[in-house]
Design a protein that fits this description.
globular, three-stranded antiparallel sheet, 13 strands, mainly beta
Length: 185
Amino acid sequence: MSLELARQSLKIVDSPVTRKGNIRETQPLEAVIKQYVTDRADLVVWQRQQILWGCWDGAALVFANQERLDENQILEIRVFNEKEELHLYRRHGAYEGRYVCDGTGEVQSHVDTLSRFWGHKTAHDGDFVTLKDDERFLSMTVPCQEKADYYGLVTRSYIEADDKTGQAGYTDYRFVRIESAEGGR
């Protein structure tokens, strides 16, 4: 899709959405994900010492360079694809959060936006892309099979209007996909 999404004006779309809030699970992370996420998905994990990007292949977590995840260090995780997102926080030994699934449920308005990641591609192994920001000496490896020099994160923001005032605003958002964001620095 490239930068097409970022260059066009916001387009409000109405589509069905199902939400399951107040999730509280004490099972291991992979069991929790398997319970909610039905298809392959990308994920981002905020840990005490790092942010780690990876994939859910339907049965296990996969990270670049065969990195391992220490569940005791997890602060927050988002597992997402075109259809759904599981967003969890780790609190007191349990995972708490919510699940959103597009395509079923009550109709709700949303907009999609593309935010370009900092840095440019320095490596691509077919499944993961390493991005590096030379000026800040930062790098990160994100899951994406698409080939490009620049990448971005597509976020879907859900819109609701207050019944009393008519004021509309964003009430929730979710990550959708990582894609090419060609267009220079």
